[in-house]
Amino acid sequence: MKICIASEGRGGMDDAVSMQFGRCPVYTIVDIDGEIVGDVKVIENPGAGVASGAGVQAAQRVVSEGCEAVIAGSIGPNSYQVLSTAGVEVYTAPRISVREAVERLIKGELLRQSPGRVPGMGPAGGGG
Question: Is the pTM of this model over 0.85?
Answer without folding.
Answer: yes
